[in-house]
Amino acid sequence: MRYLVGTHHGEQSVFSVNGDAALNLTQAIPQVGSDLAALVATPTLAAEAARATGNTVPVADITPSLPIASPGTIICLGLNYVEHIREGGYDIPDYPALFMRGRASLMAAGAPMVRPACSETLDYEAELMVIIGQGGRHIPEDRALEHVFGYTVFNDGSVREYQRKTHQWTPGKNFDNTGAVGPCVVTPDALPEGASGLKIESRVGEEILQSSNTENMIWGVARSIAIISEYCTLAPGDHIALGTPPGVGHAKKPDPRWLRPGETVEVEIEGIGLCANPVVDEADFSKVAAE
């Protein structure tokens, strides 16, 4: 099943998507609510939503919102593709680099990605993102995929200058409005096991920035969930981003390739969807927000 959370005629709703048409599940089943939180937490409600019928609207008429308005925990893997590790000059680790993002750093597909006033080193990172369904602790790897509600697209926008100010990556990974999520969330039954074998790509216009395949991840979805749940109790609606393939801007030769205001950066994962966001300067973003 393919879900889209977004605004249509001024109201935010949850939609099920089939091709270019979207069924408003919130109207059909009010208990669904205005984002995916209720469906994620209540499997019986999700089963009811799968049987819903009614009139549809064009997907193009829906403005995407975040799939879950207030996710509890947002955990990201770094260094999960061998060639990306090599282009960054790191040794291949035997345990994933893990960091967290705050809610203010996220924004929906289509929303502006903000280049901060303090640095021009805004980079892109195409990533597969998991939304947890059933929570738990000490989840065994062979049962971990049962804990996945769905998969979506993530652009882990990173301000490299600030990422490198400290051994901890938190500053560069948590600027407001730099992590784009969505627009669609696709349930596991519609994808290969563990969302493996999917083409993943980032672009600006005709310029291909990254192009790889999710089968190249060192730590796949099941292993990542097992590792994280060793130390962290996962809850329904938590997000896990699975790291980026090679081709990031800071590693481009002879000069880094930073995102610039006026560009639109796209991340696409086969079978899941396309997340596109215009890049804007913080001063211009703040000016529009104040109007």
Automatic annotation (TrEMBL):
<dbReference type="InterPro" id="IPR011234">
    <property type="entry name" value="Fumarylacetoacetase-like_C"/>
</dbReference>
<protein>
    <submittedName>
        <fullName>5-oxopent-3-ene-1,2,5-tricarboxylate decarboxylase</fullName>
    </submittedName>
</protein>
<comment type="similarity">
    <text>Belongs to the FAH family.</text>
</comment>
<dbReference type="GO" id="GO:0046872">
    <property type="term" value="F:metal ion binding"/>
</dbReference>
<dbReference type="Pfam" id="PF01557">
    <property type="entry name" value="FAA_hydrolase"/>
</dbReference>
<dbReference type="InterPro" id="IPR036663">
    <property type="entry name" value="Fumarylacetoacetase_C_sf"/>
</dbReference>
<feature type="domain" description="Fumarylacetoacetase-like C-terminal">
    <location>
        <begin position="73"/>
        <end position="280"/>
    </location>
</feature>
<keyword id="KW-0479">Metal-binding</keyword>
<dbReference type="InterPro" id="IPR051121">
    <property type="entry name" value="FAH"/>
</dbReference>
<dbReference type="GO" id="GO:0016853">
    <property type="term" value="F:isomerase activity"/>
</dbReference>
<dbReference type="GO" id="GO:0019752">
    <property type="term" value="P:carboxylic acid metabolic process"/>
</dbReference>
